[in-house]
Amino acid sequence: MSLTETSIKTSDAPLGRDDLARLVAKDIAPGSFVNLGIGQPTLVSNYLTEEQNITLHTENGMLGMGPEATGDDIDGDLINAGKIPVTELPGASYFHHADSFAIMRGGHLDICVLGAFQVSATGDLANWHTGAPGAIPAVGGAMDLATGAKDVFVMMTLLTREGASKIVDACTYPVTGVGCVTRVYTDKAVFLTGPDGVTVRETFGITLEELQELVPVPLKAAAAVGLQDQAAP
Amino acid sequence: MLNFVDSVQAAVAGIKDGSTVMIGGFGNAGQPFELIDALLDCGATDLTVVNNNAGQGDQGLALLIKEGRVKKMICSFPRQSDSWHFDAKYKAGEIELELVPQGNLAERIRAAGAGIGGFFTPTGYGTTLAEGKETRFLDGKWQVFETPIHADVALIKALKADGKGNLVYRKTARNFGPIMAAAAKQTIVQVADIVPTGALDPENVVTPGIYVNTVVKVAGSGSAAEKAA
């Protein structure tokens, strides 16, 4: 297999946040139960279609969460995990916090989508704490989501502002979960992570060879190893 | 023994210095603001408080922290854009923090109410929050031993109580209410309405009255606007 393999380049330019959210949404199997993390992952909900019949979970105690509430629909008793007022869809249900986390921790959610500071070659996730001296730590539901969902998707830019890869050999930030991330969606490529290392499903505006120069872990091309994802666009 | 009292002051009057107090709510939803205000006024201090957060803005739990009544917070997410009172106390070394992943927080509270002495969970394995805790390889995964969180008192908010103390909640304001009610020795509930016994459909009761000790009606119990009225 040659690293000059370019057939997995599916876009001539890096993907913007919305294009990336659209891609994640498209990859979610119909009928899935999904938890979208705070921040960039929330954008995914804008691109889920009615035909997909996705049920959104929010860890503060609801399945069947609808879009953000506006105007007269704003109700202080109906908020999401980011404490934003939301709406309920027909068929929604409410439950207390221990039941809500049992849904997560018991492996009932199909997918959760999270942001990250770093993901390691074997799928360790760091997204809760910079570990900086004096920083006040806050974890929320991140560790439960990371270990509980059947699939953990990460959405992030590939590089930090300083140009360092967020896909790393081993996380230097405190980890949220060990070996839990299954896919990483970035502006430059989609990566599949697991015990066997990192496979690149597709790249955006960059060849695999150029990508390898940015990422300090060995990359395999999905097409070349027969792992091309069926759900890929 | 179930009591119905006429004021939030009477409801919290028995809370002693040094108590562990669970406070319901996630964000503002389900926060028993009036009971927290009464706790502040009653002067109880040296408290350990269990809540998902550590106070927001200049109200409720944030004020209790500001006034130095809280020696320890057990929570999952203290740092927020408007958690300045907690942030100041924490940076000054004037408040202790036990940071707990949110699912562990909920399950440890549930365990206390259910008489469970502890449990193993994969959450947190391999992280700094599991340091020093017993681990076992169970069901194909490394798991961490977690202990129950008991409390002397729970302050929670529900929508309605009936004459037996049965409770129903509203939407995502339910959050920690049912599990805290079961975990505390004394559960104090503020409700928007008290209805006659028999008026709640037994199929819809969320917290059975056995877990409830004190009920106080707070008119329009909820939003800041209603609170001011």
TrEMBL record, chain A:
Pfam families noted in UniProt: CoA_trans
Transmembrane segments: none
Keywords from the named record: Transferase
Database matches in InterPro entries: 3-oxoacid_CoA-transf_B, CoA_trans_fam_I, NagB/RpiA_transferase-like
Domain of life: Bacteria
The family this protein is said to belong to: Belongs to the 3-oxoacid CoA-transferase subunit B family.
Xref: NCBIfam families: pcaJ_scoB_fam
Descriptive protein name: 3-oxoadipate CoA-transferase subunit B
Automatic annotation (TrEMBL), chain B:
Gene3D superfamilies for the chain: Glutaconate Coenzyme A-transferase (3.40.1080.10)
Chain ranges passing through the membrane: none
InterPro entries reported for this sequence: 3-oxoacid_CoA-transf_A, CoA_trans_fam_I, CoA_transf_BS, NagB/RpiA_transferase-like
Keywords: Transferase
Pfam families with a match to the protein in the record: CoA_trans
Family from the record: Belongs to the 3-oxoacid CoA-transferase subunit A family.
Protein name as annotated: 3-oxoadipate CoA-transferase subunit A
Gene: pcaI
